[in-house]
Q: What sequence folds into this?
């Protein structure tokens, strides 16, 4: 996958399948220390120790329609390819946290890509889930939290066209502003 946002979408789809109500995505970019860290957490069903231990097998999946589970192994491979590290923590009935660290300037480190699209797909999921997105760039931070937006929207649904456009703009500009030099 040539965009980190697609890996993030894939990992979050596991969270939705695991009945999560809240998905937390934290991205931390640190240029001086040369890392790009992605942490995705959910409050879903979690995994048993057995399931968790089977993650070392790249062809592991608990789905029965297709034998090969790829979302997690692909994300892990992407991080490892960039001299990074990868970790999955999970507690049954509590939730799961997946973290991937990449070397920021590694030639194979994919760009973030259309994270606004990824977040929109998660928000517009048929089951109402909340999404917390935090993006740190050096010492600046952008936060997007559907729980805060729900309060402002009152009863206007997330599916409202103008709401969708507003959210996407907010995310795009929020991230763009992080990377602007402070003068
Ligand atoms: N957030 C999660 N919560 C609970 N179980 C998970 C989570 N992420 C992954 N899993 C478990 O790990 C398996 C492998 O995930 P993945 O590599 O994405 O393959 P797939 O989704 O195609 O099965 C899933 O089938 C599921 O059992
Ligand atoms: Mg998956």
A:
């Amino acid at each position: 996958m040539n965009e980190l946002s697609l890996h993030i979408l894939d990992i979050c789809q596991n969270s939705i399948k695991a009945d999560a109500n809240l998905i937390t995505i934290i991205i931390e970019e640190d240029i001086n220390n040369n890392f790009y860290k992605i942490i995705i957490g959910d409050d879903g069903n979690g995994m048993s120790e057995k399931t968790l231990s089977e993650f070392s097998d790249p062809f592991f999946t608990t789905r029965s329609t297709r034998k090969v589970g790829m979302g997690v192994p692909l994300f892990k491979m992407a991080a490892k390819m960039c001299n990074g590290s990868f970790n999955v923590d999970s507690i049954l009935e509590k939730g799961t946290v997946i973290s991937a660290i990449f070397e920021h300037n590694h030639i194979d480190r994919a760009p973030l890509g259309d994270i606004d699209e990824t977040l929109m797909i998660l928000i517009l999921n048929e089951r109402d889930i909340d999404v917390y997105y935090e993006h740190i760039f050096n010492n600046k931070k952008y936060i997007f939290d559907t729980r805060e937006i729900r309060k402002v929207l009152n009863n206007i649904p997330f599916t409202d066209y103008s709401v969708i456009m507003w959210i996407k703009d907010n995310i795009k500009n929020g991230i763009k502003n992080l990377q602007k030099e402070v003068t």
In short: Helices lie at 4-17, 49-53, 71-81, 115-123, 146-153, 161-178. Strands lie at 22-30, 35-42, 85-91, 95-103, 130-137, 140-145.
